[in-house]
Amino acid sequence: MCAEDHLHGSAVCHQELNHQYDTEAHQHEHSGQRSYACDVCKKTFIRKSGMNRHQLIHTGQRLYACDVCKKTFIWKGDMNGHQLIRTGQRPYACDVCKKTFIMKGDMNGHQLIHTGERLYACDVCKKTFIMKGDMNGHQLIHIGQRLYACDVCKKNFYYEG
Fold first, then answer.
1. SS3 for 42?
2. Could you report the per-residue pLDDT of 2-55, keeping only the tens digit for each?
3. Do 50 and 104 have their domain in common?
4. Could you tell me the sign of the dihedral formed by the alpha carbons of 84, 89, 90, 91, in that order?
5. 95 with 83, same domain?
6. Which of 65, 39, 66 is nearest to 52 (CA)?
7. 98-139: pLDDT as tens digits
8. Domain enclosing residue 102, as ranges
9. Where residue 58 sits, what CATH number does that domain have?
10. Are residues 123 and 148 in the same domain?
């Protein structure tokens, strides 16, 4: 068996990961070390892939399109979720309250509500959050970047909705 076939464990949370480089990047999540910064907004990231993914926001490039309605998306996962909405499928259910979700990551984040754990903290003001996406959205306030514009009044907002 080669070294790549062994599971590697996190020293902090004991999560098992398939590759050593996954384990090293995962350890940075616990330490808070963020070695990669976006050239445009200076937001920092634990993984280079996370920074590269983030930078698509600044380019406006939307590589993925729904086959049915042609709506475009920056990220493939968002398009896949959109397509599940169209079919009405909600394949993931919370073990505690049975609430259903379109995306597994949304269910995983939701399940933290039941534990009360607030694993994510803003680097600037130290406010804590249950869900990483909520923290990421909050951090836009500190950098002054408003990513969403109203089609009617053209006013810009931090959150979509």
1. coil
2. 344 444 454 546 556 555 555 556 665 655 677 789 888 888 887 888 888 888
3. no
4. negative
5. no
6. 39
7. 999 988 888 888 888 898 888 889 888 999 988 788 888 888
8. 90-161
9. 3.30.160.60
10. yes
